[in-house]
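Fig. S4 source data, part A: sequence.
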Amino acid sequence: MFEDEYLKQMQREDEYYKRIEISYNLKRGHKAKKEKNTQLLNQIEEFRVKNNVHEPKCISDRLLLYLRYGIDSFGLPWSQDAMLNNSVMKLYGLVRGDMNYTNKNPLSVASAILYISCIISGKKISQKDISKIYSVAESVIRNYYKLIKNDFNIPGIDF
C-alpha cells in the first residue's frame, strides 16, 4: 500500500515537472538537465514572488521576467542604470514584436539580450557568467547574439 502511494506521488511530481517544462518552453532532457532546469525555474519563481511580478501568461511576459531575473542576479540596478535599462527595454521591444522569436526559448533570448545590453552599457559580464545564471550554453548565447545583432542591425557592437 505504501508503494502505491509512493508511485502516485512520483507520477504527480512528474506531471508537475512536465507542466513546468511546457509552460516555460523547455525541452525534455536527461535527468541532470531536468533537475537543473527545475532548480532554475524555482529560483525564478521565488524572484517573481519576492518582487511582486505578475504571473507570466505569454512568452513575452516570460522573457521580461527572465531579463529582470538576470539583471537582479548580477546585482545590477534595474532602475538606477538608465543606459542598461534603455538597451534592455529597446531590445526586448524589438524581439517581442518580431514573430521569428515567438517559437524560440525565452531563456536563450533573454541571455543574449542581457549580454548585448551589457556590452552596450559597458558592463564587464562575460558569456560564461550569463550562461551560469540562465543554465544555457555559451554557444547558445553567441548564436542568439549573432541572430539578434543581424536581425536588428545593432550598431556599436562587434563580434
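Fig. S4 source data, part B ends here. The helical segments are 2-23, 31-50, 59-73, 82-97, 106-121, 127-134, 138-152.
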